[in-house]
Design brief:
Number of strands: 0
Strand content: under 5%
Order of helices and strands: HHHHHHHHHHHH
Helix content: over 70%
Distance between the termini: 27 Å
Number of domains: 1
Number of helices: 12
Shape: globular
């Protein structure tokens, strides 16, 4: 059977971004940026993106495109005889499985919250009341497992439709919704009281906070965020790279 490919470059970019954009970028990044000195932390983070993140990302794309295989088989195809590069696949498979376990659980929470909002379960509750709802969810493994199973079955359904009709088409729509939601949240945030002070705390360079927490801690936080931002190290980008045509420049992607 002929292997499917993405119908457009935009589809490939949005799917790759969808793999990377998650809690680490939407919630954790602003938090640690404010904590570690605002723009001074962002500068260190951008250096790691360019010096470490970009080369490793291109390398993963290259492995995927050269092998035209998943992370489980790519090095079996590419490794020179007698070398042990194929052992990488065990870490990649374990990393992707753990990541799937995490995100299917969190997606199950979101599905439950969507249901609670639809039936008015949060009406009249303050922040503590909403927190209690989450606490009761965590103490109910049956409800959590049920929501997670729905998410897993939905994802299997998307994959069953194929690359173009399933993964690409649905991801395009969901990423458009995500970007619109983030734009709405950003506009709402800057209209809140004392937003100017918040933006200054978040973006103003403050190297005293870098020294306060220690350069080593800040550097490791920036490095970890750079790897998390691009979903590096677990073979996820190699999977997408296996769908990149030979006529396309990897750095351009």
């Amino acid at each position: 059977m002929e292997r499917e490919s993405f119908s457009s470059r935009l589809g490939f970019i949005l799917i790759s971004a969808g793999c990377a954009i998650g809690l680490g970028n939407v919630w954790r990044f602003p938090f640690i940026t404010g904590l570690y000195g605002g723009a001074s932390f962002v500068l260190i983070y951008l250096c790691f993106l360019l010096l470490l993140g970009l080369p490793i990302m291109v390398a993963e794309f290259a492995v995927g495109r050269a092998s035209v295989r998943s992370a489980a088989k790519s090095f079996d195809v590419l490794e020179p005889a007698g070398t042990k590069w194929h052992l990488y696949k065990y870490g990649a498979i374990a990393g992707n499985v753990l990541l799937m376990m995490f995100y299917t659980t969190v997606s199950g929470w979101m599905l439950y919250y969507f249901y609670k909002m639809a039936v008015g379960g949060f009406v009249g509750l303050d922040a503590k009341g909403v927190g209690n709802v989450f606490g009761s969810l965590l103490s109910d493994p049956v409800t959590m497992a049920g929501n997670m199973i729905i998410i897993v079955l939905s994802c299997f359904g998307v994959c069953y439709l194929g690359v173009k009709a399933g993964v690409e088409r649905i991801t395009k729509n969901m990423m458009a919704c995500l970007l619109l939601l983030m734009l709405i949240l950003a506009v709402n945030s800057i209209t809140l009281p004392n937003s100017a002070a918040g933006l200054k705390y978040y973006l103003y360079p403050d190297f005293n906070r870098v020294l306060e927490h220690g350069i080593r801690e800040v550097v490791f936080a920036a490095m970890g965020q750079a790897f998390f931002t691009l979903s590096l190290g677990i073979g996820a980008l190699a999977i997408f790279g296996s769908y990149i045509g030979k006529e396309q420049r990897l750095t351009g992607e």
